[in-house]
Amino acid sequence: MSYPTQPTASHFINGQYVEDTDGAAIEVIYPATGEVIATVHSATPAIIDAALDAARAAQAAWAAMTGTERGRILRRAADMMRAANHDLSVLETYDTGKPYQETSVVDATSGADALEYFGGMAATLTGEHIPLGEDWVYTRREPLGVCVGIGAWNYPTQIACWKGAPALACGNAMVFKPSETTPLCALKVAEILHAAGLPKGLYNVIQGMGDVGAALVADARVDKVSLTGSVPTGRKVYAAAAEGIKHVTMELGGKSPLIIFDDADLENAVSGAILGNFYSSGQVCSNGTRVFVHKAIKHAFLKRLTERLATAVIGDPMDPQTSFGPMVSERQTSIVLDYIAKGQAEGARLVFGGARMDRAGFYVQPTVFADVHDDMIIARQEIFGPVMAVLDFDDETDVLARANDTEFGLAAGVFTCDLTRAHRIAAGFQAGTCYINTYNDAPVEAPFGGSKASGVGRENSKAAIEHYSQIKSVYVRMGDLEAPF
Ligand code: NDP
Fold first, then answer.
1. Cα–ligand 1 centroid distance for 352 (angstroms)
2. Cα separation of 464 and 474, whole Å?
3. What are the distances in angstroms from CA 191 to CA 18, 150, 379?
4. How far apart are alpha carbons 448 and 286 in whole angstroms?
5. What is its EC number (predicted)?
6. Which of 159, 216, 228, 387 to mutate to test the pocket of ligand 1 (most atoms within 8 A of CB)?
7. Is the CB of 382 under 6 A from ligand 1?
8. CA 174, CA 168: separation in Å to the nearest integer?
9. Which helix (H) or strand (E) holds 185?
10. 146, 173, 282, 477: which sits with the fewest CB atoms below 10 Å from its CB?
11. Which of the listed residues 179, 184, 243, 334 should we mutate to test ligand 1's pocket, taking the one with most ligand atoms within 8 A of CB?
12. What percent of the chain clears pLDDT 70, i.e. is strictly above it?
């Protein structure tokens, strides 16, 4: 199979594609058909060294440029990504299986947003002047050095940009390791950045599984690690980074609540539940997979939800009409089917879907369980697939406590037309990203990230700058200095 914008080698190091076939072969599988569409090779120790050395060598000169110069390159890369949106979206669909209907409006576009936003901000990153009588202190906002980005497989272009753009804006260099399931898109991000004028060595992409990620995290040449992944991987990476007292950003998993009160606009609430459970076939970290529905509207909600799910266009992800595609991999398919079986075994009521589809590729039906209880496995563990759990409630205080009764704290949402209740609930949620009468928006201008086990740090917005830079204080004495002897 040939497809547009095919990367020409496994790795991108020091401004060019690099191959090393000594590394273990990783087959790239198109999730819609199960066909192998490319093979890349895992990074050998020589490749890891080359990437880290290139990043180290390039970083100081990049940091010495003005923010305006750095930002101009990032904004040019944003324009180039937008111009290439169609081809990049097709590649994203081959890499992940997500429908072109989604990838054409979400992936390269949100990557470009991040490059534009942080490119625009680069020139504004300054310190402050702190007067101390006639003496004074000034602060310098300085880069961290070499940052490692490690990505999950659901948004490979977006994750590569959400980490790369603020890192580069602040004057850092980056070595990015995509998930081995979706290795292609980040290579195109590297290619575009360098075509836009990024000096070589500043954004490197190397392939590999967890062992390559672990080698990067442990390396003394690395100053910061930003991971998007599951909580178990986050625990390992956080612990390994702690050995070297490295800065970290952890964007981890969730089991987020979505509360729908009986005064909510029903159509909007159903839209929120669909967006928060079935977009990207449910493979979204912030999904509101525990849907608490007020008892008074439970039947009406389930009726409209199932009516609308029946209109999903499931099929060829390249067809612009298709609105629901496959899971990313056979492995993720079987994980999701296992959870569906557990839900049935635990006595949850299956009201929609529940099966693998009889076609090539990794298709699982959009699935809804009703009458789910808080202690069921499908209400406690992240499934990362198109499985919605609907739980009943009738009391506001009680449902908020139930919503917060989880180790996770990534996102949370509420649908209600009661203005004060909406804000009361948002204030009460133990989650980093909350939604009122909407779900899963992630504009680059707003901080995104989790509390509790769902993460450390924030991506996007001005908040990300704090996680890719550090403050140096410089004390200045204007007069003579006294000493005790
Ligand atoms: P994983 O945690 O399995 O993997 C994440 C990345 O870490 C992959 O690149 C993986 O490599 C790598 N990795 C695995 N082990 C190690 C290690 N010991 N040291 C360093 N790197 C390692 O997550 P998935 O790829 O399965 O993605 C799904 C998860 O990501 C879900 O839990 C989801 O909620 C979360 N996620 C969070 C987001 C957020 O912003 N909060 C956004 C998107 C997803 P490889 O897989 O190649 O072996």
1. 29
2. 23
3. 12, 18, 42
4. 10
5. 1.2.1.8
6. 228
7. yes
8. 8
9. helix 185-195
10. 477
11. 179
12. 99
Sequence-distant (6+) residues with CB within 8 A of 299 are: none
Cα gap 367→364, rounded to integer Å: 8
Atom of ligand 1 lying closest to residue 216 CA = 20
Q: What percent of the chain has pLDDT over 90?
A: 98
Collapsing DSSP to helix, strand or coil, 227 comes out as strand
C-alpha 132/C-alpha 41 separation (Å) is 57
Nearest residue CA, atom 19 of ligand 1? 214
Cα 62 to middle of ligand 1, angstroms: 29
Please work out whether the CB of residue 252 comes within 6 Å of at least one atom of ligand 1.
Answer: yes
**d(Cα 318, Cα 482) in Å, to the nearest integer?**
74
pTM for this model (two decimals): 0.97
Query: What does the pLDDT read at residue 1?
Result: 44
With H, G, I as helix, E, B as strand and everything else as coil, classify residue 229.
coil
Q: State the distance from the centre of ligand 1 to the C-alpha of 74, rounded, in angstroms.
A: 26
Residue type, 31: P
CA distance 464 to 444: 10
Domains of the chain, earliest start first: 11-253+454-472 (3.40.605.10), 257-436 (3.40.309.10)
The stretch 91-99 carries a mean pLDDT of 98
Distance CA 413, CA 201 (A): 41
**Would you place residue 7 in the very low, low, confident or very high pLDDT band (cuts 50, 70, 90)?**
confident
**Which residue numbers are catalytic?**
251
Comparing CA positions, the residue from 165, 17, 179, 166 lying closest to residue 96 is 179
Q: What is the 3-state secondary structure (H, E, C) of 71-128?
A: HHHHHHHHHHHHHCHHHHHHHHHHHHCCCHHHHHHHHHHHHHHHHHHHHHHHHHCCCC
